[in-house]
Amino acid sequence: MKSGKIIGLILLSVLSCPFAICFAQSQSNMDYRRNSLAMMLVYHPEDEFGEEIYKAFDSLPVPDKYDDHNIGWRVIDNSQIWGVQRKDSGYFKATYGHALTPSELRANALRTEQLLNDADVAKEMVAKWFGMQGSSPEDAVFNTDLIQQRGQYNASDVDVALALQTTRGLATLSDAGEELLMNTYLLVNDITYVTAEQEAAAAKTAMNILGGIADALLGSGSTVGKDVANLGGAIADSFTGFKVKTHSYLYQLEWNDSIAAIFYQQHYTAKPDPKKIQAFLDDKTSYRLKYVAHEYEFDKKSVLKGKYSRTELVRTICARSMDKNIVALAKQYEDFKVKTPVYQVLTDQRGKTEGYAAKIGMKEGISEGSKFQVVQRLQDPETGKSTYKYVATVKAKKGAIWDNRYNAVLEQADGATLPYTTFTKVSGGEILPGMLLIEGKYRKVKE
Fold first, then answer.
1. Who is most buried in 100, 269, 326, 336, counting CB within 10 A?
2. Separation between Cα atoms, residue 166 and residue 248, nearest integer Å
């Protein structure tokens, strides 16, 4: 499992190869601004399934409603960073029979924030945004290609040298910061698990205790205790499956006008400038990640219909568990909300509107009654700044919700073969393809 792996080695790796940065893949068909997301895993090598959980996580892509902003560092190795048994300021681990307390969760979240910032992860994320390339400070440069691509700007709009000379140019850079860099997130997933064997052992123990109590009350000749104990064995043997306990900690890239000014004036350079690049590498205070939210997912009743190998079982359960946490975090934390375009206006044979299609579904937490704002993104022709205008409200149509969860087709789940989810209008004006759906009420939308 050793590919690009351990966050504990980041400082050493950055020093030896500071420009080994993965750049975003082409998204030529993108027509809206997604939030950007990187994902990491807390790896527990001491666990029986630790390696398989790592492999499962490493094989899963960033959800397609976010832009992939992974930087190559994917794993926090609990044994290398803090040690499994450390209790003072290290990672508190959820185990079978032990749920993390609020104070333990808070300690984990803030300790991870410190770890990420000590390792300059935010700086790596900024470097990816600005296409940092080169093998040394002497030949390294930045560019705005990724910002241009994800923000749908013209090349001249985000030319930093030109932008810094005009009011409109500065507004465009500010807009890019607000819409793109400020909506850049890192999700750290701490995944532990419960196996059938663990549940079985607990059930047997409980039944044996009950059996002993029954014999003591009814006398030495009683067989009730043995019967209860045997029942415990039967119940234990009936447990099947593998269930994961996922704690997800969400961090946001800090970006504001002050940080942008430092970057553009002191660090950004499109031509070789060793002093600026070295200043960027040496800066330990300007670029930070901040902890914003936590979510926990554990489904005691999770059952998979399909037939899976052990590896695919772990991958499927991990994928669905993380998806549930992302959905919950999007509802909890305003700026993490998913935006997705109206894919198609659906009409009957007479041309009457029947509904609206969008490429989201159960993976994004859509259920009967889910309501979305339909908004239109507007851009001021003078300043280049973006705003969102309310257009309508829609809700998911019963029986027309796409099951796009990982491996849903393999399980032949209801709705898995649908190409999209259908929404119907609750109120508002005309809805056109390309307008954006945002779940709930989004505070940045103007009525």
1. 326
2. 42
**Identity of the residue numbered 223:** T
**Three-state secondary-structure class, residue 222:** coil
User: Residue 139, Cα to own-chain centre: how many angstroms?
Assistant: 34
Burial of 445 from C-beta contacts in 10 A (0-12 / 13-18 / 19+): middle
* 3-class secondary structure, 97: coil
Q: Are 8 and 73 in contact (CB under 8 A)?
A: no
| Tokens found for residue 29 | 């068909």
Q: What is the 3-state secondary structure (H, E, C) of 225-270?
A: HHHHHHHHHHHHHHCCCEEEEEEEEEEEECCCHHHHHHHHHHHCCC
Give the residue from 300, 418, 430 showing the smallest Cα distance to 366: 418
Q: Is 413 helix (H, G, I), strand (E, B) or coil?
A: coil
Tens-digit pLDDT profile for residues 13-58: 332 333 332 222 223 333 678 899 999 999 888 888 888 899 989 9
DSSP string spanning 353-388?
EEEEEES--GGGT--TT-EEEEEEEEE-TTT--EEE
Q: What is the pLDDT of residues 193-213, one digit of tens each?
A: 877 665 555 545 444 444 445
> Is beta strand 36-43 parallel, antiparallel or unpaired with respect to 371-379?
unpaired
Other beta carbons within 10 Å of 259? 19
* Residues 6+ positions from 80 with CB-CB distance below 8 Å: 6, 8
CA–CA distance, 108 with 317 (Å, rounded to integer): 23
Q: Are 344 and 357 in contact (CB under 8 A)?
A: yes
- CA-CA-CA-CA dihedral for 376, 377, 380, 386, to nearest 10: 140
Residue 107 contacts residue 82 (beta carbons within 8 Å): no
Locate 198 and state its tokens: 């663990």
- Tell me the residue ranges of DSSP E strands in 86-183: none
Tell me the one-letter amino acid at 186: L
